[in-house]
Design brief:
The complex is a heterodimer. Chain A is built from no helices and eleven strands. Chain A is an all-beta fold. Chain A has a single domain, classed as Sandwich (Immunoglobulin-like). In chain A, β7 and β8 form a beta hairpin. The radius of gyration of chain A is 13 Å and the shape is globular. Chain B has one domain: Immunoglobulin-like, CATH 2.60.40.10. Chain B starts with a strand and ends with a strand. Chain B is an all-beta fold. Chain B is globular and about 40 Å long. Chain B has no helices and ten strands. In chain B, the strands form two sheets. In chain B, strands 2, 4, 5, 8, 9 and 10 form a six-stranded mixed sheet that branches. Classes of the chains: A mainly beta, B mainly beta. Chains A and B meet through β4, β5, β9 and β10 of A and β4, β5, β8 and β9 of B.
Chain lengths: 113, 115
């Protein structure tokens, strides 16, 4: 079953605008990760935030985590056409067998040049 | 190699045939995962290998699916008597057991089409 639920399901913005994507999950987690997927193939890891962290930055990415609401958001600032892709949040419950990721269905981001 | 590799990249098979999908993880990564991504669905966990420990097979959808990992490196996912609903992209990922917790490195996937 899906753990993460992202919204919106699809987002279309103009180049230069910021893109905000949200994710909610159901059970306790050790960490939450965001991945990007181009053309329905391999996923690229973007950023990981642990359950004891509230905010993290990486370049133009900012991710927040609210464990009380079981939700996370990914902000991409100053978007570029190359950011067009599907974005997935994924949760992990820890190490070993708990390290397996549970994914949401993804958000399709289109950045218009 | 530089990253996780998978073969074949595409596989078309007839219903009822068996298929084998291969994954070469990043050298030194002891954890290996298989996921499946069906059209319109998110990614589903299938199976997890960690070193010499017994694999976590809890995500395998039926007994037609099996996987092995030889020598702690290369893994093969086998689907017997394929069905049309098995059509999907099968993704392999690997990670370090220790060190940077959680980040998984994905291969490009194998797109399986069952006709």
């Amino acid at each position: 079953s899906q753990q993460g639920e992202e919204d919106p399901q699809a987002l279309s913005i103009q180049e230069g605008e910021n893109a905000t994507m949200n994710c909610s999950y159901k059970t306790s987690i050790n960490n939450l990760q965001w991945y990007r997927q181009n053309s329905g193939r391999g996923l690229v890891h973007l950023i990981l935030i642990r359950s004891n962290e509230r905010e993290k930055h990486s370049g133009r990415l900012r991710v927040t985590l609210d464990t009380s609401k079981k939700s996370s958001s990914l902000l991409i600032t100053a978007s570029r056409a190359a950011d067009t892709a599907s974005y997935f949040c994924a949760t992990s419950r820890g190490v070993g067998a708990n390290s397996k990721l549970t994914f949401g269905k993804g958000i399709t981001l289109s950045v218009r040049p | 190699g530089a990253g996780v590799s998978q073969s074949p990249s595409n596989k078309v098979t007839e219903k009822g045939k068996d298929v084998e999908l291969r994954c070469d993880p990043i050298s030194g990564h002891t954890a290996l995962y298989w996921y499946r991504q069906s059209l319109g669905q998110g990614l589903e966990f299938l199976i997890y290998f960690q070193g010499n420990s017994a694999p976590d097979k809890s995500g395998l959808p039926s007994d037609r699916f099996s996987a092995e990992r030889t020598g702690g490196s290369v893994s093969t996912l086998t689907i017997q008597r394929t069905q049309q609903e098995d059509s999907a992209v099968y993704l392999c990922a690997s990670s370090l057991a220790r060190g940077r917790l959680g980040e998984q490195y994905f291969g490009p996937g194998t797109r399986l089409t069952v006709t």
